[in-house]
Amino acid sequence: MNGTNVSSRVLERLSDEWDGLTPEAQKAARYVLENPREVGISSVREMAEAAQVKPNTLVRMARQVGFEGYEDFREPFREAIRSGAAGFPDRARWLQDVGKRGQLGALYADSVRAVLDNIEETFAGIDPAALQAAAEAIWNCRQVFVLGVGVNHANARNFTYLASTGMTRFHAIPRAGNSAIDDLAFADGQDVLIAMTCHPYRGEVVQAIEVAREQGLTVVGISDSRASPVIRGADHGFVVASDGPQFFPSSVSIIALLETLLSFVIAVSSDEIVARVESFHRRRHALGIYSEDPR
């Protein structure tokens, strides 16, 4: 049961119990019903001031509809924010509220739990055979274009950098000064596009996938929902979990998936890759790029 459903049920209960509320509690309830997003991100004092009631009125209102106190009443709304039901600004305000109330220990626990849950949920939903199929398409193609914008541009560049230690046909796009569709201008059915974006989906990524399909590229899509246009437009689609207490989608599962995908590519590749990786790192040692352990 997600936070959105729980908070909606609280609002329904508040509405159902309306006639049993005192006039002042009805005044507070009216503000809550009209501004439910404020409940999870505002303190009891801020809510009381906005509703033009005393803080104790909100406490009595919560108890009259079956909660032990206002914090219990408020928790489902905060859970909705933690689970991603609120927008980025609201989640940022909630994080500041957590800090003001000295609950950073709880935020730390929420963050760690979200990371572990996202990894577990992502890989529980992926068939290794599907990863192998994508890896084989990548290994057998002419060029691989790895598309991400915003924070995902860093993820695309990291994937391309790791791949470059043994392979030369990987390109992170968009390149500086270019658009993604320009970078795909001469790509065709011999090539692969790996594209990633989470909700709210970036338009340039969706557009690039449409162009890639028109040009015959094989598309590997990474996104946070089966309903995502990235997944629906992909030949090989992988859904990642990106929830967390922060105000932006988490990249942890995307990074883990990309690293795993690259491992699969190496696993299905030819023996020459091992020699290339070895040569790449031997050269780095020879040129003094690595700082040697003085022991």
UniProtKB/TrEMBL annotation:
Any idea which UniProt keywords this protein has?
DNA-binding, Transcription, Transcription regulation
- The answer to whether UniProt assigns keyword Transcription regulation to this entry is yes
- Report the superkingdom from the record: Bacteria
Whether Transcription regulation counts among this entry's keywords is: yes
| Annotated HTH rpiR-type domain residues | 8-84
PROSITE patterns (UniProt xref): HTH_RPIR (PS51071), SIS (PS51464)
Per the database record, which ranges form the SIS domain?
134-271
From the UniProt record, give one GO term of the biological process aspect: carbohydrate derivative metabolic process
GO MF: carbohydrate derivative binding; DNA binding; DNA-binding transcription factor activity
Protein name per Swiss-Prot or TrEMBL: Silent information regulator protein Sir2
